[in-house]
Specification:
With 149 residues, the chain is an alpha+beta fold. It contains five helices and six strands. It has one domain. The strands form two sheets. A four-stranded mixed beta sheet has the order 1-4-5-6. Strands 2-3 form a two-stranded antiparallel sheet. The mean pLDDT is 92.
């Protein structure tokens, strides 16, 4: 019995059963623009940022927020930074209000407002070496859990 048939495939099946949308490896790579350096599904994140942050995230600032997320380092400090983003602790300045407003990446209070994807064989090109996860879970286009067996 292989790892794929004993663990990976059942995990993907269960994720689909509880509402995660399954994407093939090819579909997930297409969502990443065909680039294994890209960590997010930017089209989904773009739409979700605007939806979850009405009046805060707009067409004028959404791409800068996405770029800020792309620029997070792949190290322990980057993990802390991303965790703060995921917890809604990062903000942007809203000139019309003359104040900072926190950004929501995931709606924890209303899970139905989020988009859930699961995929397999996620390859991530790094600076020093590449990584591969057997299963990757994404919420609103953001990878939140990689599992390797």
């Amino acid at each position: 019995m292989s790892e794929a048939s004993s663990v990976q495939k059942p995990m993907l099946k269960y994720a689909r059963e509880i509402g995660w949308e399954y994407l093939t490896h090819k579909e997930a790579l297409q969502r990443r623009g065909g680039d294994t350096k890209e960590r997010i599904f930017s089209d989904i994140l773009h739409n979700q940022l605007i939806k979850l942050n009405p009046g805060v995230v707009t067409l004028d600032n959404v791409e800068q927020i996405i770029q800020d997320l792309r620029n997070i380092n792949s190290d322990i400090e980057g993990n802390r930074t991303l965790l703060n983003w995921l917890k809604g602790q990062n903000s942007i300045f809203i000139g019309t209000e003359n104040r900072d407003r926190n950004i929501t990446l995931i709606d924890f209070n209303n899970p139905e407002n989020n988009i859930f994807h699961v995929t397999e064989e996620w390859e991530q090109k790094g600076i020093a070496f590449n990584n591969r996860a057997d299963v990757m879970f994404l919420i609103n286009g953001i990878p939140v859990r990689a599992i390797s067996f």
